[in-house]
TrEMBL record:
The protein's name in its UniProt record: Ig-like domain-containing protein
Entry-linked Pfam families: I-set (PF07679)
GO cellular component, one term: M band
SMART domains the UniProt entry points to: IG, IGc2
Keyword Repeat carried by entry: yes
The Ig-like domain, residue ranges: 5-94, 102-190, 195-283, 287-376, 382-470, 475-563
Length: 610
């Protein structure tokens, strides 16, 4: 704080003393150090002398005469000063050559003390020695003892009282007596009892919304000052808080408490003798409340695993319950639950579409409950239950690719040809109904041939199927049958290699008549190779053979000759040169040959003989 000026707070205005007796002039001062005392007698600085001693200690200045003489009488001035200011006063000091009755230069004053402490009553007495000093309480003389210590030193009479209690309060008198007379000075001892608690408020655990009353009773000297605090903040009546104060009791009432009202409440009681405080803890149980809620929704794929996580606060114990579509979930291989360090977790494994729904977590404790929910949608990736197959299409015909798909709709269907997206229009018509998807290709031509692909997509996956669509080829001969010859009784075979769209029907003709199988004729068509096998060949087998291949895209033929050799063949060969019968362009085996043979036989029968 600011510096305080020097000031005299206690002094003696008039002192009389008998010549030859000791005497003391004493002043008590105050002020900010450094304090400088000065003494004057009759206006002049006091000279040093062995007759007296000057001291200044603990803010008490003394001028002590060992043995006062008549010429020591005079006007003494004391001055005290510091950097801020100064103060002075005068005392008339009279030395007489006769005895002087006792008189008090500093009378007794009223004194305050506190229970269990100690106190001192003192006064300053002047007058001729010897002098007897006595002390009285409420008129009864006090003897020196462990409780009362009586002293009279250098004009100061003192009474020290130890272990003060309320019974020590009363009126104390100091009586000074010498040969000339006696004098008394009185003062009161006021014993102040510091406050102490008779009953203290107890700590409480309560539910939100409760009313709470913290009450304390106490004792001690009034008036008492009573203050209530929450933590370090002083409380005043108002709102949901009301404080009552009476002489020796006080209450703090809290209405409709909230969790924020939890804390340490302190009652402080004080008076002039001291202060005391007591505290109680109020704990308002927190209702179970979610501080981190479930994700609003989750989209899962069939077979996935996931976990629903939320965080809850509140006063333990907290009970966690999980529900799906308002049905409580029990622990199982699919459902695993945990609640550790305020975090509630529901783990789902191998989910199916039947696990879709609204999942709710409910947290409950004694103080309240809360819940949060999440929509879980489990979808199955699309897959084909029936795929379309490779197909061959006749030119200018329409074709439809049809497939069946499963999974969770809605589906997005995309068609491709050779990796290029197809659009519905004049050429293509797409269609989806329930599980059926189709693509119709109108008036198929060679340019429409290629790899067709269908891709089905939903929110969790996709699937594709593909097949080649080709234009049906008419049959054609990669290798044609070739003419051959055989002796009578021998074997012969015709073989042709074909290509073209299956199925291909192969037919064999001989001289425009369809060849049928018998013991000597066998036909096969395997691996695109058409074969005609003849055995036990006779003249009737001689002739022109045709291989005819047919499918729904067209027909194709190729032909070759089978020549049967032997004596008849030689004869026929000679006849062929001379026979004018027409036509004779086929092998020698028909009525033409017979006619020619007969005609030539008539003209030259000898030629038949070699």
């Amino acid at each position: 704080g600011a510096n305080k000026p020097a000031k005299i707070i206690e002094r003696a205005e008039l002192i009389q003393v008998t010549a030859g007796d000791p005497a003391t002039l004493e002043y008590t001062v105050a002020g900010t150090p450094e304090l400088k005392p000065k003494w004057y007698k009759d206006g002049r600085p006091l000279a040093a002398s062995k007759k007296y001693r000057i001291s200044f200690k603990n803010n008490v200045a003394q001028l002590k005469f060992y043995s006062a003489e008549l010429h020591d009488s005079g006007q003494y001035t004391f001055e005290i000063s510091n950097e801020v200011g100064s103060s002075s006063c005068e005392t008339t000091f009279t030395v007489l050559d006769r005895d002087i009755a006792p008189f008090f230069t500093k009378p007794l004053r009223n004194v305050d003390s506190i229970v269990s402490g100690s106190c001192r009553l003192d006064c300053k007495i002047a007058g001729s020695l010897p002098m007897r000093v006595s002390w009285f309480k409420d008129g009864k003389e006090i003897a020196s003892s462990d409780k009362y210590r009586i002293a009279f030193v250098e004009g100061t009479a003192s009474l020290e009282i130890s272990r003060v209690d309320m019974n020590d309060a009363g009126n104390f008198t100091c009586r000074a007596t010498n040969s000339v007379g006696s004098k008394e000075s009185s003062g009161a001892l006021i014993v102040q009892e510091p406050p102490s608690f008779v009953t203290k408020p107890g700590s409480r655990d309560v539910l939100p919304g409760s009313a709470v009353c913290l009450k304390s009773t106490f004792q001690g000297s009034t008036p008492l000052t009573i203050r209530w605090f929450k933590g370090d903040k002083e409380l005043v009546s108002g709102g949901s808080c009301y404080i009552t104060r009476e002489a020796l009791e006080s209450s703090l009432e809290l209405y409709a408490v909230k969790t924020s009202d939890s804390g340490t409440y302190t009652c402080k009681v004080s008076n002039v003798a001291g202060s005391v405080e007591c505290s109680a803890n109020l704990f308002v149980k927190g209702p179970a409340t979610f501080i981190e809620k479930l994700e609003p929704s989750q989209l899962l794929k069939k077979g996935d695993a996931t976990q629903l996580v939320c965080k809850v606060t509140g006063t333990p114990p907290i009970k966690i319950t999980w529900f799906v579509n308002d049905r409580e979930i029990k622990e199982s291989n699919k459902h695993k639950m945990s609640f550790v360090e305020s975090t509630a977790v529901l783990r789902l494994t191998d989910v199916g579409t039947e696990d879709s729904g609204e999942y709710m977590c409910e947290a409950q404790n004694e103080a309240g409950s809360d819940h949060c929910s999440s929509i879980v949608i489990v979808k199955e990736s699309p897959y084909f239950t029936k795929e379309f197959k490779p197909v061959e299409v006749l030119k200018e015909y329409d074709v439809m690719l049809l497939a069946e798909v499963a999974g969770t709709p809605p589906f997005e269907i995309t068609w491709f040809k050779d990796n290029t997206v197809l659009r519905s229009g004049r050429k293509y018509k797409t269609f989806i109904q329930d599980q059926l998807v189709s693509l119709q290709i109108l008036k198929f031509v060679a340019a429409d041939a290629g790899e067709y692909q269908c891709r089905v997509t939903n929110e969790v996956g996709s699937s594709t199927c593909s097949a080649r669509v080709t234009l049906r080829e008419p049959p054609s001969f990669v290798k044609k049958i070739e003419s051959t010859s055989s002796l009578r009784g021998g074997t012969a075979a015709f073989q042709a290699t074909l290509k073209g769209s299956l199925p291909i029907t192969v037919t064999w003709l001989k001289d425009n008549d369809e060849v049928t199988e018998d013991d000597n004729i066998r036909m096969t068509f395997e691996n695109n190779v058409a074969s005609l096998y003849l055995s036990g060949i006779e003249v009737k087998h001689d002739g022109k053979y045709v291989c005819q291949a047919k499918n729904d895209a067209g027909i194709q033929r190729c032909s070759a000759l089978l020549s049967v050799k032997g004596w008849f063949t030689k004869l026929a060969s000679g006849l062929r040169k001379k026979c004018r019968c027409e036509p004779f362009s086929r092998p020698v085996h028909s009525p033409h040959l017979s006619l020619c043979f007969l005609q030539n036989l008539q003209q030259s029968p000898r030629r038949l003989c070699p």
